[in-house]
Design a protein that fits this description.
38% helix; Rossmann fold; 17 helices; globular; 5-stranded parallel beta sheet; binds iron/sulfur cluster; 379 residues; alpha/beta
Length: 379
């Protein structure tokens, strides 16, 4: 379906159909599905608003705060007009017994159809007594609510792999949602959206994908959507040319730091952290609105075993080296002096080097003479 074929009015009051389609197209592009904006718009327009229940366990409300900062559309419109947020402790008008009764009623009425969002880790030590809501432990609530959900989204690093509460010595036995699923035999599909806080667009994109295609997007080995966590931060960082050229900030506030040099030597974990922060940015305020963009080294908040685990100023152990994904460097001549083997040696890691070299060679292409002979830039 083409965009112009979707002629109904926007499902969000105060948002024009055109702007709604633009928003859906933007979300589709973020998911690596260019051209699917109209299908997403159609899916969320024609169906009944999907019920969403939100369970908060050991968390700081940062995930909700981050979501409240979205603008396309703003969260209150998303709540009221795209999804039906049935239960969220922070945002509910009701509280106490009334809120818990509403949660149970909604679970019964929407059994097998609702999306459960969980933020915060689940304490399991001492039978889970360190986090209780309405007299029930978060562990009991998760078991009850997850087993009847259509899908579960573990939002934030705490829900995805333990986060801050699970840091050594982990006094409450803070545990990730998917680990609870394993121990309790819960089979509901579960996706992790780690980050501290996670980017709200990654959450919104995942919800829209599920609503449109009735399944979760493709996930990596840590159950994260590949469209958001498929590349290292280091691959798309605006400071990457300085890394490649060996220009580093050595102290906060020194000449290199003020000039925007690479933060690797200040402990930046971008080379070992998968996330799309440099591309999606935060809070809709323009370029540079992400930690490294504002001069703070990435501390690997979305990467299990790095964030809240590895000392903040310890140097990262790069997973692999690849060329920047956006454009080739401007100081290299196209096709001259570059071979796959040459880039492989420069990359310095045998396993990753061939792939990195192949991508670079493909991007830079062949020189004109070779193109003339072969008739193809891709060869
Ligand atoms: S080490 Fe950090 S600051 Fe330097 S290029 Fe990589 S992600 Fe950017």
């Amino acid at each position: 379906m083409k965009l112009e074929e979707v002629t109904d009015s926007s499902p969000i009051s105060g948002v024009s159909r055109r702007d709604f389609l633009k928003f859906c197209s933007m979300m589709a592009a973020a998911m690596g599905l260019p051209g699917m904006g109209a299908q997403i718009a159609e899916a969320v327009t024609v169906q009944k608003r999907p019920p969403v229940l939100w369970l908060s366990a050991q968390e700081c409300t940062g995930c909700t705060e981050s979501l409240l900062r979205t603008n396309h559309p703003s969260l209150e419109r998303l709540i009221l007009e795209l999804i039906s947020l049935e239960y969220h402790e922070t945002l509910l008008v009701g509280s106490g017994k009334q809120a818990e009764e509403w949660r149970e009623k909604s679970m019964q009425e929407n059994k097998g159809k609702y999306i459960l969002v969980v933020d915060g880790s689940i304490p399991v030590k001492d039978n889970g007594i360190y986090c209780k809501i309405g007299g029930k432990t978060a562990l009991t609530l998760l078991e009850e609510m997850a087993s009847q959900a259509a899908a579960v989204i573990a939002i934030g690093s705490c829900a995805s792999w333990g986060g801050i509460p699970a840091s050594d010595p982990n006094p409450t036995g803070a545990t990730a949602v998917h680990e609870i699923f394993k121990s309790k035999g819960i089979k509901t599909p579960c996706v992790n959206i780690p980050g501290c806080p996670p980017n709200p667009y990654n959450f919104l994109s995942t919800v829209l994908y599920f609503l449109t295609f009735k399944k979760l997007p493709e996930l990596d080995e840590q159950a994260r959507p590949k469209f958001a966590y498929g590349r290292l931060i280091h691959e798309n960082c605006e400071r990457r040319p300085h890394f490649d050229a060996g220009r580093f900030a050595l102290q906060f506030g020194d000449d290199g730091h003020r000039k925007g040099y690479c933060l690797y030597k200040l402990g930046c974990k971008g080379p070992e952290t998968f996330n799309n922060c440099p591309i999606q940015l935060f809070n809709d305020v323009g370029s540079g609105a992400w930690p490294v963009g504002t001069g703070g080294p990435c501390f690997g908040c979305s990467e299990m075993g790095i964030g809240f685990t590895k000392p903040i100023h310890s140097p990262a152990s790069p997973k692999y080296f690849t060329p920047p994904s956006i454009l080739p460097r401007i100081d290299e001549k196209r096709g001259h002096g570059l071979t796959i083997a040459g880039v492989a040696v420069a990359a310095g890691i045998a396993g990753a080097a061939l792939g990195a070299g192949a991508v670079t060679a493909k991007k830079l292409g062949k020189d004109d003479e070779e193109q003339g002979k072969s008739g193809s830039r891709e060869k």
